[in-house]
Amino acid sequence: MVPDDAVIGRLGVLVTATRGSAGPGEVLVRVRGGSETFLAWSAEPLPERAEVLVTEDCGGRQVTVIAWTDPLDELTDVGPVD
């Protein structure tokens, strides 16, 4: 299988939770002008509706994901600056 580099680095949302090494979940990723689903593997279990980052394409519509927290969200939680 040829890796699909178009999905690497994309954000997605889990539509089915991952179970870590016990099994994949499913992730919805915006790519190629639309949305596509892929089997999603992760080192640790991740819950349904978690925002994730695709780190690797494993071929056969399977990807590796990690939990994603937007680093800019932390900046907006600081509050007003005097």
For this entry, give a set of tags.
82 residues, globular, mainly beta, 7 strands, 7% helix, two-stranded antiparallel sheet, five-stranded mixed β-barrel, 49% strand
Fold and architecture overview:
With 82 residues, the protein is mostly beta strands. It contains 1 helix and 7 strands, in the order E-E-E-E-E-E-E-H. It is globular, with a radius of gyration of 14 Å. 22% of the residues are buried. The mean pLDDT is 90.
Major sheet summary line: 5 strands, mixed, barrel
Report the C-alpha radius of gyration, rounded.
14 Å
Overall geometric form: globular
Number of strands: 7
Describe the structure concisely for a colleague.
The chain has 82 residues and is mainly beta.
Layout of strands and helices, then pairs:
Blueprint: E1 11-16, E2 18-19, E3 25-31, E4 34-41, E5 45-46, E6 51-59, E7 62-67, H1 71-76
Parallel strand pairs: 4-7
Antiparallel strand pairs: 1-3, 1-6, 2-5, 3-4, 6-7
